[in-house]
Amino acid sequence: MKITMTVNGRPCSGEVEGRTLLVQFLRDIQGLTGTHVGCDTSQCGACTVHVDGRQVKSCTMFAAEAEGAEVTTIEGMANADGSLSVIQQAFQDHHGLQCGFCTPGMVMAAAALLKDNPRPSEAEVRAHLEGNLCRCTGYHNIVKAILAASGQAVAVAAE
Ligand code: FES
Ligand code: FES
Questions:
Q1: Where does the 2Fe-2S ferredoxin-type domain lie (predicted)?
Q2: Which terminus of the chain, N or C, has less C-beta within 10 A?
Q3: Are both 55 and 91 inside the same structural domain?
Q4: What is the pLDDT of residue 156?
């Protein structure tokens, strides 16, 4: 079947099967490989995107279910001039990544959190990230980055 949705502000369509997952549509058909697949059990959150403004693990949704939706992926998170968004810059400034595999999902989760809760506590950040796993165990700096992106003072990571 043919499906159409808006991805990062651009109309996108493609032929999918009923069983095609949204993450497969984004990566394999649209070539948006910034959305990662880190598990096959819906647990890691590396595939997190926004669908109609809601945080979704794109491996848990069929592509056809996103017909007509507004989807945002990590490729849509930079500023219009190509510079890093506040959240992305904070991840860089606070060393919120090691191998970077979980980072797209972490950034998308962070953006969803800050949209609903612009000044979260550390506990709220940690609770929100429960569905996102970092195998490099970089949670401390990820949390710092998100707090910094919310405008709260945190110590700058040592160079
Ligand atoms: S790939 Fe979707 S949760 Fe792991
Ligand atoms: S930075 Fe490596 S998995 Fe998180």
A1: 1-77
A2: C
A3: no
A4: 62
Its domain, for residue 144, covers 86-149
135 C-beta closer than 6 A to ligand 2: yes
Per-residue pLDDT band for 137 (boundaries 50, 70, 90) equals: confident
Which of 103, 106, 129, 132 best tests ligand 2's pocket when mutated (most atoms within 8 Å of CB)? 103
Is residue 134 in contact with ligand 2, taking CB distance under 6 Å?
yes
- pLDDT tens digits for range 16-61: 999 999 999 999 999 999 999 999 899 999 999 999 999 999 999 9
Ligand nearest to the CA of 98: 2
| Beta-strand pair 70-72/2-7 | parallel
User: Where does a domain end: 19, 46, 75?
Assistant: 75
8-state DSSP, 81: T
How many domains in the chain? 2
